[in-house]
Every structure is written in C-alpha cells, then in structure tokens.
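Human:
Care to share another protein and its fold?

Assistant:
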Amino acid sequence: MLAVVPEAEPLVGRWRRRLDSSARAGIPAHVTVLFPFLDVDRIGPAVIDDLSALIGAHSPFAVRFDECRRFPDVLYLAPKPERPFRALTEAVVARWPEAPPYGGQFAEVIPHLTVAHSRQAQVFHEVEAALTPRLPVTANIYSVSLYVSDGSRWHPQVEFPLLG
C-alpha cells in the first residue's frame, strides 16, 4: 500500500527509473504505507471494506520533502511530517499483524520516498547533488493506493481516500 506522491515525480522520476527497480516495474514515486501486504488471493471484499474504513478514518495531510537522507543502500527524500504515514502503517498493521512492514526485517519503520538503490557512495553523492537545489517538494496526501503485481509489473488495484 502506497501513498503516491505525483508531485515528486518530475524531480525523482529519471533517477528512480535508473536506480530503483520498483520504478521500472510500474511503481510511482511514493511513501510506503505497508509492504508486503496480504497475498492477493486474500484480498476480497471484506479486506477492501476494512481498508476503506481504516484508511478513511485518517485525514488528508500536507507533506514536505526538503532533504535527502540515506539508509546503507538507499537514498531517499524524508517526509515532514512523518507521523501521518506512521499512523496509517500502524492502523493497517494493528488490523493485520500477520503483515508486518517489510516482512518484519526492521525494528523501526522510517517513512521515506526512495530515490535510488546503490552500494556506491558516489552514486548517492551525484543524485543528492542534483536533487538538493530543487528541493523542497510539497504535496497533499489524499489517498492510499493498493498495488498488486502480475508477476512482472505492479498495477493500482484500489484507491482508498483519506476522509477523516
């Protein structure tokens, strides 16, 4: 589940297509709310209804991306505020604890908009030098989208509006 950020695409799109395989597989610029989610065979009307209620209980919010940060192999834009993204993730995980963020591999989930994956610091320096003068990017988050894979590409399946 993704909070899509189309306002970031003009800034990060070319870098993501080059340095983030999810972009090449159809995933737009986004902040992840929850991945992985349930197996596609489990996503029926009851799950969609529950997601609609959970996500719909949250209010739309403005977000600003004004700096690049790094994980060991990832360069990302940091959202401010990050709390609304955390609240969305926490709500979905509370309902489906069998679907922990990133399969449970991280103790803390840090909201972020991935720009590049690399093991080379020089790549990150290049990307960051190109992005920083063009920041900030501001956006309004009005919905969360559920994406599903057909085995090679990701496609939006359902969009859940934030109605709070």
In short: Residues 2-161 form a domain with the Cyclic Phosphodiesterase; Chain: A, fold (CATH 3.90.1140.10). Strands lie at 2-4, 30-32, 61-71, 74-80, 113-117, 137-141, 143-149, 154-161. Residues 35 and 102 are 5 Å apart (CA to CA). The longest strand covers residues 61-71.
